Amino acid sequence: MKKYRWMSGLMLGAMVLAACGGDTDDTAADEDGAADGSDEEEEAAIEEDDNTLVIGTGTDMVTFDIHDHNATNTEAIHVNMFNYLVRRDGDDGFEGDLAESFENVDDTTWHFTLHEGVTFHNGDELTAEDVKYTFDRVASDDTLMEHSNYRQIQEVNVLGDYEFEIITDGPEPALLNRISRIGSGILPADYIEEEGWDHFLSNPVGTGPFQFAEWNRDESIVLERYDDYFGGDVTEWEEVVFRVIPETSTRVNELLTGGVHIAENVPPAEWDRVNDNDGTSIISGPSNRVMLLILNQAEEYATSDKRVRQAIDLAIDNEAITEHLLGGEGTPVQSRVTPGNTGAHPDLFDSYNHDPDQARELLEEAGYGDGLEITFNSPQGRYMMDSEVAELIRGMLSEVGITANLEFLEWSNFADMHANNNNEEMYFLGLGNSMFDAALGMDTFSAQGTARTGYVNDELDELLQAAAVNMDAEEREQQYHQAQEIVAEDLPYVFLYQAESMAGVSDSINYEIAFDETIYVENIEKN
Amino acid sequence: MKRYLIRRVLQVIPVLLIISFIVFSLVFLAGNPVALMLPEDASQEQIAALTESMGLNEPFYVQYGIFLGNAIQGDFGTSYRYNQDAMSIVLERLPQTFELAAVSMLFATIIAIPLGIWSAAKQNTVIDVFATGASVLGKAMPNFWLGIMLILLFSVNLSIFPVSGRGSFMHIILPAITLGTAIAAEMTRLIRSNMIEVMQQDYVRTAKSKGQKDSIVTYRHAFKNCLIPVVTIMALQTSSLIGGALVTEVVFAWPGMGQLLVQAVNARDMAIVQACVFVIAVAVILMNLLADIVYRLIDPRIKYD
């Protein structure tokens, strides 16, 4: 009996172990057992099979609902599965993608002709009805995240299988920008109507060069080449895997050991490790994000005085930031609209004002000859070297007699402050432009959009209102140029530099970072 | 025993209610997630519209009431990031987390039991000093640091294990060692000190004086009697592994609940945070219950009724 108890004690100890692992241990064993063969083979295949491209990203994509997200990294995957009607051609023009041709008929009408013989991954042929279905959905459902960027589309008139018109609710000069960005992919109407939206979300179907294979959340998304792609044989890769690796050092380690071909968003601390390793290097490319200081012009703040704002601008040596701190990874700017966006002002790019003596004079004139104290908020860890840049700016300001009390905020608190306009004199931020059009960058300076800064300029307002509905592209561009000159003079924001995107890349491939931060796998070649 | 079990299960209800209130309050105090959901260039109208459509402009008690009403029906809301039922997302990750917790615990136990007993039996010898030193070191090393070091050594330099991810058995080894090390250290210390205490008890002396072999005295008489605190610590550690492998899962890109929770907290995805905390709370309660049952089975003197 005693022996029996002893044994039962040990067995129970073992049970505790089993409970701790418990059924899970079995599950693990089962899963491993089942997975061992296939997954190990798959792993080996990924490493050895040079027809599989592996990309390491920091966060998982959020959904296959192309209209219900605003994440660039999600769009970066979608663009390989879905085609837009038109694509930006790299400068500020557009080229047809699914559309064979397109033209602006009148102020509110755009005519499109689709390529014939385009098929979705399930074999259905693309017709104008699919376009109508897609835009009707996003333009009418106000619960979708992208609704506000498409609601200007009043209706899509189907003229034939491959012909249709997009009618806007007023003059919409930026229509092509609107339909060549997040949520602009074309959905398969019949497939979704027959199978239901939930089925589509787990088995998405598009027209792109890659088709969906599997998605293991927070782990990986696998796409396979679609051999009947209407664009023909555009890629050498048979498969592309987007692996989710949140920790930067792990992502870099995967690159160094050949686990991924591309490690996205590599911070400066890791650059040497990647460059010193045989077979990998760091690459950079201009992003559409401009780093800037937002100045509050409410009466109680000294920054309501234009001379103080100008003094801040003159005190900051933009090139010292980009060259010495960022190692050349950035370009000084005087506007939020950079080349690659419709309406960019060439003179305000790669240029800046720096004159500490004049800054001191302006402060003296404004009555701050004895010094000025302001609050300066900055995020930490959100943008590349953000806290170091903020420290340097504080130093530059102190040189001219401005004491900036630098307060770093954790991102969620910072985002709160930004969204609710709880800012004091000055804060540091990076702003993108998902519309690739001057309108998005400039509308924040109109009378309706300045709750944050309190900045009002009637002349600017008129220009912005006129440009927003001007269908004459050249005249519209001039209006935006003028508007940017006014803003560069008045300085509701002090513009610092255009940020660069950085990635670690294996030398076995040829990859360039795209301006819009998407990843067109068809543009990535083997070396 | 049966009545005890029923009572324990019923106690779970108020505990979960209190936990839900605390978590909801904390997430509420952390602020409005709308600012994080929209890009930096979002307009004031977009912010206002989204706040209203998510019901975030309602007062605290209304929001909590709605949450509680739904949670009782098993609905923890929809994750705004994934636009999907939060609980189903959390449950999707649970097997991966269990898998890692099980292997980590196995690793810790395999190391700790022999090492703890051995160092107690050979008190003040080189072995004991080694075991004690190793435990202090194991407990002192932060998880994320150990994880990164293991990757650098075994994956980058020696190319033995894959850096990160999940799939083959090789993938689980490094994260399991990372998580298991601190647990093994704690268990070794506990087993050692309990064993030393038990070895001085009268019945051990009696057994020894009867001429029993050392190994029988150690394993049959002494070890069995130091199991109760070991079971306690194992239960606690297992529940913390289920809920607390946060950093390790992130470092190894392990697609479990820890990684999900870290991201949800960063993005203030309240539905996911609530569902995760609920699952973790249930795990802690179940593990404690299991430990109580095991006490009874190990030591028949313990009675609950």
From TrEMBL, chain A:
<dbReference type="InterPro" id="IPR000914">
    <property type="entry name" value="SBP_5_dom"/>
</dbReference>
<keyword id="KW-0813">Transport</keyword>
<dbReference type="GO" id="GO:0043190">
    <property type="term" value="C:ATP-binding cassette (ABC) transporter complex"/>
</dbReference>
<feature type="signal peptide">
    <location>
        <begin position="1"/>
        <end position="21"/>
    </location>
</feature>
<dbReference type="Pfam" id="PF00496">
    <property type="entry name" value="SBP_bac_5"/>
</dbReference>
<protein>
    <submittedName>
        <fullName>Peptide ABC transporter substrate-binding protein</fullName>
    </submittedName>
</protein>
<dbReference type="InterPro" id="IPR039424">
    <property type="entry name" value="SBP_5"/>
</dbReference>
<feature type="region of interest" description="Disordered">
    <location>
        <begin position="24"/>
        <end position="46"/>
    </location>
</feature>
<comment type="similarity">
    <text>Belongs to the bacterial solute-binding protein 5 family.</text>
</comment>
<dbReference type="InterPro" id="IPR030678">
    <property type="entry name" value="Peptide/Ni-bd"/>
</dbReference>
<dbReference type="GO" id="GO:0015833">
    <property type="term" value="P:peptide transport"/>
</dbReference>
<dbReference type="GO" id="GO:0042597">
    <property type="term" value="C:periplasmic space"/>
</dbReference>
<dbReference type="GO" id="GO:1904680">
    <property type="term" value="F:peptide transmembrane transporter activity"/>
</dbReference>
<keyword id="KW-0732">Signal</keyword>
<feature type="domain" description="Solute-binding protein family 5">
    <location>
        <begin position="94"/>
        <end position="448"/>
    </location>
</feature>
UniProtKB/TrEMBL annotation, chain B:
<dbReference type="InterPro" id="IPR035906">
    <property type="entry name" value="MetI-like_sf"/>
</dbReference>
<protein>
    <submittedName>
        <fullName>ABC transporter permease</fullName>
    </submittedName>
</protein>
<feature type="transmembrane region" description="Helical">
    <location>
        <begin position="226"/>
        <end position="252"/>
    </location>
</feature>
<keyword id="KW-0812">Transmembrane</keyword>
<feature type="domain" description="ABC transmembrane type-1">
    <location>
        <begin position="94"/>
        <end position="291"/>
    </location>
</feature>
<keyword id="KW-0813">Transport</keyword>
<dbReference type="InterPro" id="IPR045621">
    <property type="entry name" value="BPD_transp_1_N"/>
</dbReference>
<dbReference type="Pfam" id="PF19300">
    <property type="entry name" value="BPD_transp_1_N"/>
</dbReference>
<feature type="transmembrane region" description="Helical">
    <location>
        <begin position="169"/>
        <end position="191"/>
    </location>
</feature>
<keyword id="KW-1003">Cell membrane</keyword>
<keyword id="KW-0472">Membrane</keyword>
<feature type="transmembrane region" description="Helical">
    <location>
        <begin position="142"/>
        <end position="163"/>
    </location>
</feature>
<dbReference type="Pfam" id="PF00528">
    <property type="entry name" value="BPD_transp_1"/>
</dbReference>
<feature type="transmembrane region" description="Helical">
    <location>
        <begin position="12"/>
        <end position="31"/>
    </location>
</feature>
<dbReference type="GO" id="GO:0005886">
    <property type="term" value="C:plasma membrane"/>
</dbReference>
<keyword id="KW-1133">Transmembrane helix</keyword>
<dbReference type="GO" id="GO:0055085">
    <property type="term" value="P:transmembrane transport"/>
</dbReference>
<dbReference type="InterPro" id="IPR000515">
    <property type="entry name" value="MetI-like"/>
</dbReference>
<feature type="transmembrane region" description="Helical">
    <location>
        <begin position="272"/>
        <end position="295"/>
    </location>
</feature>
<feature type="transmembrane region" description="Helical">
    <location>
        <begin position="100"/>
        <end position="121"/>
    </location>
</feature>
<comment type="similarity">
    <text>Belongs to the binding-protein-dependent transport system permease family.</text>
</comment>
